[in-house]
Amino acid sequence: MDGPRTRGPSLPFPRILLQPVLHRIVHRIARENPDMFGRLGPWRSSQFLIDPVNLPFALLLRPDPDNLLLRAVSRRNPPPHVARIAGRFLDLLELVDAETDGDALFFSRDLEVTGNTEAVVCLRNALDDVEGSIAESVAEMFGPPGRAALAVLRRAGERRKAQRG
């Protein structure tokens, strides 16, 4: 099976280099979509571990508009979190943009959710309130290179879907 149990490269990765980019991304998404935070309910200040299993790090997300956080962390020793959402990077990207059915990913074992599922449902509902594509918004932040990178990722996702059948 090549589902969410796949692990990324084991080489050391300087996560600190990602921090300014991740900070910029989460603040832009929050600024463009301030209404999404109302759907988080009591989980607004909780921390979620987003684990793209084919990358060398996980992401810690705290979707609190007063104390936003998106940070690359070690998957081997993650900070406390209310829930973990794990899957391949492309599947997670499509899930964020509601291009993929989360239930289908979960039942096909391409997505693994552990911890508080109510918190995950609230996070999913908040993402559903986002107008447009988060991936496109992030790509736009980086101009032509960002748009080109997103196009490459989307083509790779389409190839993977075609291979699945």
Structure description:
By secondary structure, the chain is of the alpha+beta class. The protein has a single domain, classed as Nonspecific Lipid-transfer Protein, Chain A. It is 42% helix and 15% strand. The protein contains six helices and five strands; from the N terminus they run H-E-E-E-E-H-H-E-H-H-H. It has helices at residues 19-32, 89-96, 102-107, 117-128, 134-141, 143-164; strands at residues 48-52, 58-62, 69-73, 83-87, 111-115. A five-stranded mixed sheet has the order 3-2-1-4-5. Helix 5 packs antiparallel against helix 6 (143-164). The chain is globular, with a radius of gyration of 15 Å. 26% of the residues are buried.
Please write out the topology:
Layout: H1 19-32, E1 48-52, E2 58-62, E3 69-73, E4 83-87, H2 89-96, H3 102-107, E5 111-115, H4 117-128, H5 134-141, H6 143-164
Parallel strand pairs: 1-4
Antiparallel strand pairs: 1-2, 2-3, 4-5
Helix pairs in contact: 5-6
